[in-house]
């Protein structure tokens, strides 16, 4: 029995949408021939529609009953088909089968269109890689690349796996992973991600993450897990469908018993199929997932959107979420004869060979080609020193500036920046303190408008950060966030989220780092910053924001609420139509053929209503 079921399931999966379209075309032509008796045949032409469109429905019903005693719409449809054939209503049976398959095809097309938007984000998976073996270049399938292999990437090619550049300089388009519109310069020691595109120079790299561990494959796994069937409200609709099957059978039996007209009983079975009810939820969820993808979100399951619609509080990590997560030069101060521009120029020149993130940040923010430097030296944990234009330049913390003391005024000024969470790099020239450079993580430009938009739709933002109270309050004041919890360790974030949940709030957590993973799991809905976030954070979240554009967050929340409204409208409409149709069928005003048209027109309208979510945007 199990082997037979597997063979049936394999047959039903062949061809997918193309097979369904072919069967529908043949079935539609056969119904036209049957209706107008165009071709004399020894049998009713409607049987082509019954066999091609109705047999798959019967198979689904049989498999569901045998494997799990699953009473769904297919069971009632099958009964309607069998009853129609038994009383000689071949055309009605063919029409029921045809329109049921048409409704299923429309659902598949809606889902396919929704998924197509997601797949566009990850459709750049490279197929081959140029591996260097014993000095010889060999092109192999990308899935055969192993960790440690040396790969050559030419201009215009897509990076096959994650890795680290060994030699060469280039610019890489990382839009598929980070949303950055401009290419990023890369050289030896820099990391590159699979799916990104090499734009200019050739380079060689060592593979670090391959196969399913690579960045692009991780995104694909998110796509494949976008399953509307996991939504709780789908289960609710299924339970209703089961009861409707029981009610329909009872109504058909009683009508036949009291009126003696089996055609009325058959019509009841035809019009009371709960197809529109079953279609109401998954089509809306998948359309909403498709919409969210266009705005940079990868939704792992429809249940996440259902839960998101009830969110009352959103807790934010600060660094990399509300801020860019990379240090920027925010102030340059001179305390000597050198101007601020000269202090900045000397520091950039001294830092140009530094591997330290702060040194790289100073050089990046300087934005000009620095002067040449000699005798470069890096002191771990302190800073760098170098000779620039014949002058000894030191840039780093106070440990590097041995023998130099700060005045009380300077110490107070620098201390103010430190209290706000900034970092201070002191610059000394020929043994004299010349000035200092302030670096800090800057707020994303869109963060303030995003926070205001959240409050307008009734969701309260909360800041949970590991920074000190002053630094947290400074950022919160800039953004207009009133509830702030500073100095939070991972367990502190869990405690705060748990307290909100015990208070009756539905909480959404947004973070990017490994330390945010527990909170992302604890929250009712977890959203990870997919571009800058860690692998662990993304895996722990329900939703990933691929391009880190948090300005789209209010749209996602509004979309989730709109999705739930659409589902409720679909359910109400489908139930109302079913009860109206059964009342007309009991009184004899609706026959099997017209009943099938009315019933399945309801299914089509439900699907079309759900499809409106694909391009919905709040005005």
UniProtKB/TrEMBL annotation:
The chain crosses the membrane at residues 21-39, 45-69, 240-259, 265-290, 569-590, 596-616. PANTHER family: CADMIUM/ZINC-TRANSPORTING ATPASE HMA2-RELATED (PTHR48085), CADMIUM_ZINC-TRANSPORTING ATPASE HMA4-RELATED (PTHR48085:SF5). It is found in: Cell membrane. One of its GO terms (molecular function) is metal ion binding. Residues 124-224 form the P-type ATPase A domain. It is a multi-pass membrane protein. Its main location: membrane. One of its GO terms (cellular component) is plasma membrane. This is Cd(2+)-exporting ATPase. It comes from Candidatus Blautia faecigallinarum.
């Amino acid at each position: 029995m199990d082997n037979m079921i597997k063979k049936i399931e394999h047959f039903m999966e062949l061809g997918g949408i193309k097979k369904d379209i072919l069967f529908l075309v043949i079935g539609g032509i056969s119904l036209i021939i049957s209706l107008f008796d165009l071709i004399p045949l020894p049998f009713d032409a409607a049987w082509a529609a019954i066999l091609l469109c109705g047999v798959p429905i019967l198979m689904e019903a049989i498999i569901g009953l045998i494997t799990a005693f699953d009473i769904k719409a297919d069971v009632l449809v099958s009964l309607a088909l069998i009853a129609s054939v038994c009383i000689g209503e071949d055309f009605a049976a063919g029409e029921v089968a045809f329109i049921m398959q048409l409704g299923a095809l429309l659902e598949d097309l809606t889902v396919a269109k929704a998924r197509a938007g997601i797949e566009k984000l990850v459709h750049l998976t490279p197929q081959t890689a140029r591996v260097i073996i014993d000095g010889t270049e060999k092109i192999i399938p990308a899935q055969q690349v192993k960790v440690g292999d040396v790969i050559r990437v030419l201009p215009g090619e897509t990076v096959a796996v994650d890795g680290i550049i060994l030699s060469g300089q280039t610019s890489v388009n990382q839009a598929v992973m980070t949303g950055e519109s401009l290419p990023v310069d890369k050289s030896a020691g820099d990391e590159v991600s699979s799916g990104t595109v090499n734009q200019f120079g050739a380079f060689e790299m060592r593979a670090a993450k391959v196969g399913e561990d690579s960045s692009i494959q991780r995104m694909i796994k998110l796509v494949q897990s976008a399953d509307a069937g996991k939504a709780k409200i789908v289960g609710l609709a299924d339970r209703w469908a089961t009861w409707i099957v029981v009610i329909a059978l009872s109504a058909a039996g009683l009508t036949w018993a009291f009126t003696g007209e089996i055609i009325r009983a058959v019509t009841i079975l035809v019009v009371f199929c709960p197809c529109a009810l079953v279609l109401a939820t998954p089509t809306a969820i998948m359309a909403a997932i498709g919409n969210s993808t266009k705005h940079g979100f990868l939704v792992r399951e429809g249940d996440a959107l259902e839960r998101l619609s009830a969110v009352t509080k959103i807790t934010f990590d600060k660094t990399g979420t509300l801020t860019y997560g990379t240090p920027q030069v925010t102030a340059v101060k001179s305390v000597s004869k050198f101007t601020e521009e000269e202090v900045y120029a000397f520091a950039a020149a001294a830092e140009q060979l530094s591997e330290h993130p702060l040194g790289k940040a100073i050089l990046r923010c300087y934005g000009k080609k620095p002067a040449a430097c000699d005798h470069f030296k890096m002191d771990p944990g302190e800073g760098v020193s170098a000779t620039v234009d014949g002058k000894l330049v030191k840039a780093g913390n106070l440990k590097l500036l041995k023998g130099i003391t700060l005045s009380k005024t300077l110490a107070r000024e620098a201390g103010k920046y430190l209290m706000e969470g900034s970092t201070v790099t002191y610059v000394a020239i020929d043994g004299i303190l010349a000035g200092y450079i302030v670096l800090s993580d800057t707020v994303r430009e869109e963060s303030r408008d995003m926070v205001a938009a959240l409050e307008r739709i009734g969701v309260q933002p909360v800041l949970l950060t590991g920074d000190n109270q002053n630094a947290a309050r400074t950022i919160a004041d800039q953004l207009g966030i009133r509830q702030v919890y500073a100095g939070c360790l991972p367990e502190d974030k869990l405690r705060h989220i748990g307290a909100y949940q015990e208070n009756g709030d539905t909480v959404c957590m947004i973070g990017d780092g490994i330390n945010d993973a527990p909170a992302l799991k604890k929250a009712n809905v977890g959203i990870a910053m997919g571009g800058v976030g860690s692998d662990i954070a993304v895996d722990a979240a329900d939703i990933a924001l691929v391009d880190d554009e948090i300005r789209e967050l209010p749209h996602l929340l509004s979309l989730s609420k709109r999705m739930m409204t659409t589902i409720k409208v679909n359910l109400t409409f489908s139930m109302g139509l079913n009860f109206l149709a059964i009342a007309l069928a009991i009184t004899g005003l609706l026959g099997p053929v017209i009943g099938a048209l009315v019933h399945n027109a309801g299914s089509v309208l439900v699907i079309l209503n759900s499809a409106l979510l694909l391009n919905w945007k709040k005005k």
